[in-house]
Amino acid sequence: MPVRTSDSSHGTPAKGVGLGLALGSALAFGGSGVAAKPLIEAGLDPLHVVWLRVAGAALVMLPLAVRHRALPRRRPALLAGFGLLAVAGVQACYFAAISRIPVGVALLVEYLAPALVLGWVRFVQRRPVTRAAALGVVLAAGGLACVVEVWSGLSFDALGLALALGAACCQVGYFVLSDQGGDAGAEAPDPLGVIAYGLLVGAAVLTVVARPWTMDWSVLAGTADMNGTAVPALALLAWIVLIATVLAYVTGVVSVRRLSPQVAGVVACLEAVIAAVLAWVLLGEHLSAPQLVGGAVVLLGAFIAQSSTPAKGSPEPVAAGGPERELSTPGAAA
């Protein structure tokens, strides 16, 4: 893929609706971490929270899977890649990361994905990249150094940072797979069908890995602490499943059909800002001034890398955007 880009025939009202939906999608994705972290701190294992999220969303999206039941025969590798990397891998690494480091830091590390994709294209595939894209990589790396405060000897938990980087790598792996998954002239699969089956594949994989039968289900019957406020655990889970997963993916898919990939990429950058602000307000996770500046530089680098992407099939040097937006939806992320 990319699966679909915007159509120039869309008028300003349609683009306005698309922008609103994209903002809603970024808000929904950005709120996943602040809802998940209290559940983890209440006693649920991060993998169990991921399994609840993915399995619940897969159940909600099951009717779409039935509707696109021919898709597994047509694109088995694509569905496996989406399920293993963009669903199971990204979510497991991200949720494990936020159990050890602040939500905003974890998501900003994950935003190294566009830079890592460019590294794959340049040094593994040996294809040229634009100067603007290279600048984006440098900015993202420099901004990340400020976010993790390298001058303090990496004051954050090293394993947490490694897990956040693992989430970024999973996004890169899925982008590489999807970039090679569509043959020229082949009909692009409906992204909603890809999401539905990806969630089913991810749920199956996570069931084996997370072993939900060992979960302390009693935690869901109680409350979780959100910066001093007791919130029903089931309410947090409902937000993660229905808002931060199902609604976030669907609004992302619908919005990208009304926007160019470049605009969608810019809006995607707001996800990290939203996550950091929500974590600040709801969880009391304050970032220092250098970290805020570094976060802004990371997002600027990601924006430059994404906005430098030439049209598919263009002879221009390659510069790749975020994988979840290329599929027509985030991070996946998160």
Automatic annotation (TrEMBL):
SUPFAM superfamilies this protein is in?
Answer: Multidrug resistance efflux transporter EmrE
Report the InterPro entries cross-referenced here.
EamA_dom, EmrE-like
Q: Name one GO cellular component term.
A: membrane
Coiled coil ranges (UniProt) are none
Limits of the EamA domain: 18-147, 159-304
Family of the protein in this entry: Belongs to the EamA transporter family.
Q: Which Pfam families match?
A: EamA
Where are the stretches annotated Disordered? 308-334
List keywords of the entry alphabetically. Membrane, Transmembrane, Transmembrane helix
- Where do transmembrane segments lie in this chain? 46-66, 78-97, 103-121, 133-152, 158-177, 189-210, 230-251, 263-283, 289-305
Lineage: superkingdom: Bacteria
Quote the protein name from its UniProt record: EamA domain-containing protein
